[in-house]
Amino acid sequence: MVEPIDPLPGLTARERDLPRLPLPGLAATGEAFLRWCRPLVDDAGYAETERAVTAFVAGPGPALQQVLAGRDEDAGRGSYLDDFFAERYFARRYPGAMHANFFLRLGPRVLPAEPGGDGDGAQAGRAARLLARTARLYRAIRADDLPDLTVRGQRVSMHQWRYLFGACRIPRPGRDTDRTIGGAVDPVDPSVRHVAVLAGGAIFTLDVLDDAGRAYPPEALAPALAAIAGQAAGSPEPDPVGILATGPRDDWAAARERLLALGNAEALDAVESAICCVCLDDAAAPGDLGADDALLFGSAANRWWDKPWSWIVLPDGRAGINIEHSRLDGTTVIAALETMIDLATDDPDPGRGSPAHRRLTWRLDDQLREEIGRAAAEFAALVSDTATVAVDLDLGADAIKALGVSPDAFAQLSYQVAHARARGAIAPTYESVSMRGYRQGRTEAMRVVTPHSVALVEALGDPARGGAERATAIRDAAAAHAARAKECQAGRAPQQHLEALQQVRRTNGPRIGVPDEPELYASPGWLALREERLSTSSVPSRLIDGFGFGPTNDDCIGVGYILLPDRWRVYLSARARIDVAGFAERLTEAVAELRGLLAAHPSDAG
């Protein structure tokens, strides 16, 4: 087999200079797991889990760990978790739309329709400015001409940048793959210079680079985009193929094979190889919450949900991005967006002439038309069963720091208190922690509940506890949260290590003498740790006015939040049977209560 040529050797070389994510020892992970799950199980459940961990560390664990150690020593891998992340996303068979994709809503002054404008402006004008900057950033990535990315003076991974543009997730039976420029399987042509424009369910290609690879300026792209929107309005697509990607992955894989069999290879390639998508929606989206919902799940037929980066521009010019999550994390998207904004306003060598565009045609049969109708109906039912609420809190990170605690810890404790009061129970909670400081680093799975957060909830519910005691409980819980976050950032979190060991067992178990699933993975502690009643993630950027995602399971509330020095916005999503509005009310109350207690009872250390 001929090895694929690396199209971005500069990025690859810089990645090698970053430290590798450390592989934790088996005993250390067992100890951390027991500590993390302890507040989530009763005494009997903990004792059963403790026995299972002891048996795992002494029994099948070392054979599984040896496989991970071999991967960790492989210079061609980013870390021992490479296979885990690929399997985590590509092997999942449930739909990606709403279950994995996330959105970012741009502020109105981020590349508005007119340079220097105060508002969003017209749809075609704003889409043109977004696409012109996208083309220039794509050109810089392809030229391997990017500055180092640093966070607080430290270089961080840019590995994910190779998946931003000119890529697509591909549905396959059993396990998905993806197409990328320079990929090992079905690579995208590196000379690609078009984007896919979706309007009225129809799909068009639009060149954003000319024959010489120069980026077309906004004034050249805007008329073409307006013409596309006009054509789609006059003749909307009766059978929008993109809706098929909202279904279960195996169903979508079978539909894609049928599309290929009917002679749609060229149309599929045009979409899958496109630099990105831009979706020109025609449905009104009132208010900020309406815009957020539109970016997450609106106009489902006007999307190609498997593209990593899809600009969505609403009729009034408000805009955002829907991101396919399998290769990209929010921190990478924000960094790319910031780099895009920082490009010089005027391109010294813009594209010449007028960009070409054409409408794609699809060959469909009655079976595919029926599947398109069914996918549309099923996604509409999912949307109708989804409740969303946005909450703007009246303080930001600076005000929280003035109270003497970590802003993120304060936010997470507020979510814990709100959940306990709204739903009557402690909330097993996931929080994503960025690991970009490591080679090909992605995220770590932090589990938020600690003995101190449980003690805080109990203290706030006990009328016998005074204000000073409650304030101390807040500070203790915040300190425990910060310590756990540092544990994750050091690569010592237990969950993904144990999940990677479980994955080794499933793929290599019989060969290495571990044919059966270890008891640890059925233990009360493991089941409780991986349960998610709250799934939380934050994107701190002044470019973004909204961020969110769907619930990760039917009992979960998705919590996407933006916590900046002067503001804190939360987007909540859940199944309709969950009182997410009640949670939002309790959250507002919890924030006020925690703030009041800390202000009334300053720390002696402060």
Provide the residue-averaged pLDDT: 95
Going across the major beta sheet, what is the strand order?
11-7-6-8-9-10-1-16
How many separate helices?
Answer: 19
The tally of strands reads 18
- Note the beta-strand portion: 15-25%
Oligomer: single chain
Unreliable stretches: none
The amount of helix comes to 40-55%
Largest sheet: 8 strands, mixed
The end-to-end distance, rounded to whole angstroms, is 64 Å
What does this structure look like?
By secondary structure, the chain is an alpha+beta fold. It contains 19 helices and 18 strands. It has an eight-stranded mixed beta sheet, with helices on both faces. A six-stranded mixed beta sheet has the order 12-18-17-15-13-14, with helices on both faces. Strands 2-3 form a two-stranded antiparallel sheet. Helix 2 crosses helix 18 and helix 15 packs antiparallel against helix 16 (467-489).
Topology:
Elements: H1 9-16, H2 26-37, H3 43-58, H4 61-73, H5 82-90, E1 102-106, H6 123-142, E2 150-151, E3 154-155, E4 168-170, E5 177-179, E6 194-199, E7 202-207, H7 218-234, H8 249-261, H9 265-272, E8 277-280, H10 287-297, E9 309-313, E10 319-323, H11 330-342, E11 357-359, H12 366-384, E12 386-393, H13 397-402, H14 407-423, E13 429-434, E14 443-447, H15 451-460, H16 467-489, H17 495-508, H18 524-530, E15 534-538, E16 544-549, E17 557-564, E18 567-575, H19 580-600
Parallel strand pairs: 6-8, 8-9, 13-15, 15-17
Antiparallel strand pairs: 1-10, 1-16, 2-3, 4-5, 6-7, 7-11, 9-10, 12-18, 13-14, 17-18
Helix pairs in contact: 2-3, 2-18, 4-17, 6-7, 6-11, 14-15, 14-16, 14-19, 15-16, 16-19
